[in-house]
Amino acid sequence: MEALVNPDRRSLHQRILDDVQGRILSGDWPPGHRIPFEHELTAQYGCSRMTVSKVLNQLARAGLIERRRRSGSFVLRPHSQSAVLEIRDIMTEVQALGLAYRFEIVERAKRRRATRADLDRLHLERKVPVLDLNCLHFAGKEPFCHEERLINLDAVPEADAETFAERAPGPWLVERVPWSTAEHRIQAIGANPVTAAALGIAEGTACLLIERRTWGAEQPITHVRLTYPGNGHELVAHFAPART
């Protein structure tokens, strides 16, 4: 049973996540430390075991802990280098180049039940209704970025009726659904036939692919693939020395 008293107004999921993550990042729980078992955290926070399990799964996806069957969850040693990427509006990227921005919805699939591939993209285990969007962003007259986005309609039901005629899906979601966690994966790829046709480049041309997942307090919101022609985009990360 979920605790009813929550004076700081955070969801219980977020409070547990902040507490556990804070102890890991502060060094209070060093690499190799076994964090409390699910039933111990359940008793400590007065919540359901499902809530605790979702928090631990989220920490595992973020690479902070490793979950071992029957042994518990353990703090992982951090990677030697890491960078945090902002969730930036593509319109802002284009305007920073001094070019006019526009976007268009190339294809919008009808609302459907999630397929196995959709569940893998969203990191979900149960089937939910989803919205599948294919978009193209322009810098001046030239294609700038190809966007393939999947939205969890359980998390954002109002997206089903949205036309995205005035706002691209990314900033529209940021305005309406608070996200608590994001994951970026960056790859160098060769353009597949669909992306090559959308961006007006030859199939196999080197491209930069950014895959992003965002989560709300307790569930995935969206998964997006953003593909940029490799000769026209770069990633810049600002960072400071880590504290010992």
Primary descriptors:
244 residues; 7 helices; seven-stranded antiparallel sheet; Chorismate lyase; 26% helix; Arc Repressor Mutant, subunit A; alpha+beta; three-stranded antiparallel sheet
Write the layout of secondary structure elements.
Elements: H1 12-25, E1 34-35, H2 38-45, H3 49-61, E2 65-68, E3 72-75, H4 90-96, E4 101-108, E5 112-113, H5 116-122, E6 129-139, E7 142-152, H6 169-176, E8 181-190, H7 193-199, E9 206-215, E10 220-229
Antiparallel strand pairs: 1-3, 2-3, 4-6, 5-6, 6-7, 7-10, 8-9, 9-10
Helix pairs in contact: 1-3, 2-3
Gap between N and C termini: 40 Å
SSE run: HEHHEEHEEHEEHEHEE
> Which spans have pLDDT < 50 for at least 5 consecutive residues?
1-6, 79-84
Number of helices: 7
CATH architecture heading of the largest domain: 3-Layer(aba) Sandwich
Rg, alpha carbons:
20 Å
CATH superfamily of the largest domain: Chorismate lyase-like
Main β-sheet description: 7 strands, antiparallel
Write down how many β-strands occur, each being a DSSP E stretch of 2 or more residues: 10
Structural class designation: alpha+beta
